[in-house]
Amino acid sequence: MTGGAPTGLSVGASSAVALCVGVAAWLVMAQDHGRRRARVLFAEGAARSPLRVRGETAGAWVRERLGERREWLCLPVALVVAVLGKSVLPLLAGGVAVPLVRRWLRRRARGKERERRAAGVVALCAAVVGELRAGHEPGRALLVAVRGTGVMGSAEAGVSAAARFGGDVPGALGQAAREPGLDGLAGVAACWRVAVDGGAGLAAGLDRLEGALRAEQRRREELRAQLAGAWSTVAVLALLPVLGLGLGAALGADPLRVLLHTPAGLVCLATGGLLEAAGLGWAARIVRAGEEP
C-alpha cells in the first residue's frame, strides 16, 4: 500500500459503510424503548421542545412513506455495497435479510397490538364501572363500554350480542379472553359470574380488577424501561462490525475487496456472520426472557 491519499474505491467504501451505519441507526432509533423509558421517568404532561416535535413529525412522515415496506430498505443498501465491492454477495445477503426483517417487524407489531389491547381492557373496566355508577344496568353498561373502547376485534360481536340480548356474557368474555392481549377479560368474566350468581357488587369487583390490571401494566412498563439499556447494548454490538469496516476503509485497507474477493476474507465473512447472528440471537433471547412475566 502506498502512502498517498485513499483511493476512490476506499472513499466509496467509506461512504457505503456510512450509509449502512445511518440506516441501521435509524432502525434502532425507530424503536420505542426510549419513549417508554421517558414515559416512566418523566410526567406525561411535560412540555415538549420544538426540536422534539419536529423530530417526531419527520419520523412520522418517513414511516408513512415507507408504510409496511420498511424491510425493503435492505435491498438498496445491499445494492450500494455490491456496486462498491464489485460482488453479488451483498445482494444475496440483502435478499435473505428482507424476510428476516419482515418477520421481526411483524413480531414487533404484534407485540404493540397486544399492549394496546391490554390497555384497552383496563379502559373497558373503568368504562363499565363508570356506567354502572351512573345507574345503567350491567348489560347496557358493558355494551356502551365495548363500543367506546373497541379493543375486542373479532370477539366484539359475540360480547355485544350477549350483553344486548341477555346471553351468556361470562362465556362470551371468556372466549374473547383467548385472543392475544385480552387476558384481562377472564377477570371481567369472573367478576360478572360472581355478581350474577352470588349477588356481589359488580362495580366494586371491576374497580379492584382495574386497579390490579393497571398495576401490572405499570410493572411491565418499568421493567421495559430498565431493560432499555440492555437493548441499547445489543444494538451497539450489532453495529460494531459495520463500524470496523468503516474504520478499515478510512485507513485505506479496502476491507470490501478483502472480504468479498479473497478466500480468507470469505471464510472470515462467513464465520463472522454466523457468530454475529448467534450472539445477537442469544442476547435478544436473554433480554426477552427478562421481559416475560
Shape: elongated
- Rg over alpha carbons: 26 Å
Q: Low-confidence spans: pLDDT under 50, at least 5 residues?
A: 1-18, 28-48
Task: State the total count of DSSP E strands.
Answer: 0
The percentage of residues in β strands lies in: under 5%
What's the pLDDT, averaged over the residues? 78
Largest sheet: none
The share of residues in helices is over 70%
Distance between the termini: 56 Å
Assign the structural class, choosing from mainly alpha, mainly beta, alpha/beta, alpha+beta, or little secondary structure: mainly alpha
- Annotation field: number of helices: 12
Order of helices and strands: HHHHHHHHHHHH
Walk me through the structure.
With 293 residues, the chain is mainly alpha-helical. It is built from 12 helices and no strands. α5 packs antiparallel against α6 (138-149) and α8 (169-176) packs antiparallel against α9 (185-198). The N and C termini lie far apart (56 Å). The model is unreliable at 1-18 and 28-48 (pLDDT under 50).
What attributes characterize this protein structure?
single chain; 293 residues; mainly alpha; disordered N terminus; T2SS_GspF_dom; transmembrane helix; Type II secretion system F family protein; cell membrane
Compact description:
It is found in: Cell membrane. This is Type II secretion system F family protein. The chain is an all-alpha fold and 293 residues long.
